[in-house]
């Protein structure tokens, strides 16, 4: 008897399914880097989502019995996660940044930017008047998540959101409509600044591709479901960042700020641009992942 068929016959409650899923995930040595931190959290999320239960309340439902069809749906979700190594966000078409929920699918990278943390604080103290920010550019917008967070952080700003991928912009458009921000967020298909001639911004934020070639070659299978365009950026991971640094000044207003996420590339970036006075911003993982530059700091 297969493990799946045995599970169909033996599992009864949500608790049973949770235990089974955690065991399957640990046995398969799944990688958790797209929203969940471990097998338990991911199993709980997938089960609650599949059963249309509140995602923040597992305990009241643990001993609830599942119908046969519900059990089949839960087991199918578990097996897809294990056998195909599909990130949970692509199975549920749902991702979160803080309190914000976004639609995602395999046309966009799963949102996980440290810039989201900074936007929750409205980039304080680097920006002391959030209502005075009139224009923001989100470069490499993907699903549009940072553009949407920026619209909430800076209530008087008009946002341009740019991506090279038309598929990604389709997803971003859906999220912009979901948040009813189509009057404030304009989407552009552009290779970085190419389509933005003459446009200037009080703030440019970007979470560009930044994975270096050796790291791309070693990525866990889960990451291979994400668009390659959104991950790798040359041998050292800095190809996109070099272009941003070279061209950002002409697209910033007099007191404009540039905020860019660069993954684990701080040492490589500082070695490549020793003349630039990078300010490294504190996020939950430390002060090595997001830098800030003033327009006057840029070439």
Mind sketching the topology for me?
Layout: H1 3-10, H2 14-28, H3 39-50, H4 68-83, H5 88-92, E1 95-97, E2 100-102, H6 115-120, E3 135-139, H7 145-153, E4 158-163, H8 166-178, E5 185-189, E6 201-206, H9 213-217, H10 239-247, E7 252-261, H11 266-272, E8 279-280, E9 290-294
Parallel strand pairs: 3-4, 3-6, 4-5, 6-7
Antiparallel strand pairs: 1-2, 7-9, 8-9
Helix pairs in contact: 2-3, 2-4, 3-4
Task: Describe, in plain words, how this protein is organized in 3D.
This protein has 299 residues and is α/β, with parallel strands linked by helices. The protein folds into two domains: 3-92, no CATH class; 108-297, Vaccinia Virus protein VP39 (Rossmann fold). The protein is 35% helix and 15% strand. The protein contains eleven helices and nine strands. It has helices at 3-10, 14-28, 39-50, 68-83, 88-92, 115-120, 145-153, 166-178, 213-217, 239-247, 266-272; strands at residues 95-97, 100-102, 135-139, 158-163, 185-189, 201-206, 252-261, 279-280, 290-294. The strands form two sheets. Strands 5-4-3-6-7-9-8 form a seven-stranded mixed sheet, with helices on one face. It has a two-stranded antiparallel ribbon with strand order 1-2. Helix 7 (145-153) links the parallel strand 3 (135-139) and strand 4 (158-163). Helix 2 crosses helix 3 (39-50), helix 2 (14-28) packs parallel to helix 4 and helix 3 crosses helix 4. It is elongated. It starts with a helix and ends in a 5-residue tail after the last strand. The mean pLDDT is 94.
């Amino acid at each position: 008897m297969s493990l799946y068929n045995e599970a169909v016959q033996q599992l009864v409650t949500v608790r049973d399914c949770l235990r089974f899923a955690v065991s399957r995930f640990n046995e398969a040595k799944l990688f958790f880097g797209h929203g969940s931190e471990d097998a338990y959290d991911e199993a709980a999320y997938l089960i609650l989502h599949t059963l249309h239960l509140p995602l923040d309340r597992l305990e009241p439902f643990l001993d609830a019995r599942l119908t046969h069809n519900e059990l089949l749906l839960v087991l199918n979700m578990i097996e897809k996660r294990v056998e195909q190594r599909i990130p949970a966000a692509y199975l549920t078409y749902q991702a979160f940044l803080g309190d914000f929920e976004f639609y995602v699918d395999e046309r966009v990278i799963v949102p996980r930017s440290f810039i989201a943390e900074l936007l929750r604080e409205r980039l304080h103290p680097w920006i002391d008047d959030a209502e005075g920010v009139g224009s923001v550019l989100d470069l490499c917008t993907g699903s549009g998540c940072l553009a949407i967070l920026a619209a909430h952080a800076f209530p008087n700003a008009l946002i341009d959101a740019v991506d090279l991928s038309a598929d990604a912009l389709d997803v971003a458009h859906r999220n912009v409509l979901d948040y009813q921000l189509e009057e404030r967020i304009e989407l552009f298909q552009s290779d970085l600044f190419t389509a933005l001639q003459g446009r200037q911004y009080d703030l440019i934020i970007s979470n560009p591709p930044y994975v270096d070639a050796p790291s791309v070659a070693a990525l866990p299978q889960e990451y291979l479901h994400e668009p390659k365009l959104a991950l790798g950026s040359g041998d050292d991971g800095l190809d996109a960042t070099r272009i941003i640094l070279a061209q950002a000044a002409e697209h910033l207003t007099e007191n404009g700020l540039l905020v860019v996420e660069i993954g684990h590339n701080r040492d490589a970036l500082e070695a490549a641009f020793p003349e630039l006075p990078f300010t490294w911003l504190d996020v939950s993982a430390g002060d090595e992942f997001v830098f800030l530059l003033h327009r006057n700091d840029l070439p």
